Amino acid sequence: MNNEIREIIEKRSLVQTLGSGGVGKTTLSVVLGIAAAKIGKKTLVVTIDPSKRLMDTLHIQTDKDISYVREFGIDAMMVDVARSWETILRKYAPPKVYSKIIRNRFNSYLKDYFPGFDEYIASEMIYYMMNVKDYDIIIVDSPPSTYAVSYLEASNRILDVLSNDFILSLIPYINISSTPIKIILKKEIFILNNIARFTGMEMLTELIRFVNDLSPLLQGFRQRADFIKRFYGSKRCGFFIVALPNDISFHNTGLLVRYISELGYRLDGIFVNRLCSSCGGPAICNMQNISEESVERQIDETSDERLRMLLKKHFLGSLRAKREVIEKIRDFTTTYKGNTNIFAVPEMTGYVKSTADIMELFNGIRTLEKV
User: Fold this and answer.
1) pLDDT score, position 111
2) Model pTM greater than 0.70?
């Protein structure tokens, strides 16, 4: 196990991985979970929307809230958004209110009407697991998004929508049953005429009823959101960023580093994922000292001229491309080394498709030195 990762994990009870979609956050969340389990911590890895391949590898069962991964000694939880939302409502809403919310047509459109709803559910489930279950540490694989930071403030955004003064001002009208809602709204609030053209009065009525039923729960939502936000800034919580060795990913990583700093959160490290042996720093680099001239001399020993030209085009081009990556790694580590840990994650041959592949990644992670 990497010593730096071990030292970090020992101090944390909540660890979160951030990064753009497709960089390997879910797999590396599992790797961090393995690290926690190996030092004796009861560990839960929480993920949203993992790949089917990884679900099969970890034996995650979609009909269960939590699955035990025997090979790694960790629990894994795939957050099913709809089921988790019902769990939250069932826990905090009275039975009659729960039934009314679930039956409301608008309940089915939450994901469409509230951008970031998945992220909000993730935050609620983090709170639930931290305060109800007895895990020593929870590893959270952040939901996929462009810069993977939206869910850090998702709770506040959802609460802002549900607490909108305009919507709340309509709630008293929904309880006046003696007069048709359409007439009352047209008479009392002129602006609703325009809204009705686009939304339909029936849907608007459903929305008002929905917010009305949820309104007694808003204070609890806000309290939990505030707790999570405070906890994110505490010493018990840390963040890892996962990046790929290319310009776009490094640029996004820079934005994430700055964003985490502005929020006052703790950046524990950056994983540079899928590094071949030629790009992982001096500890595992095997190409930095290879010159084009030496490669060309060896190729010139090939007697067939056509084959010789093909070899030069392929191998010299590959060598130059690898060197460009090495330069990007050098610039990247120079920029961030000293401020946080940077870890090199070895590239696998093909997809991660077995627990043995995950253990290979776990054992292959090295602290990336300046080159």
Assistant:
1) 67
2) yes
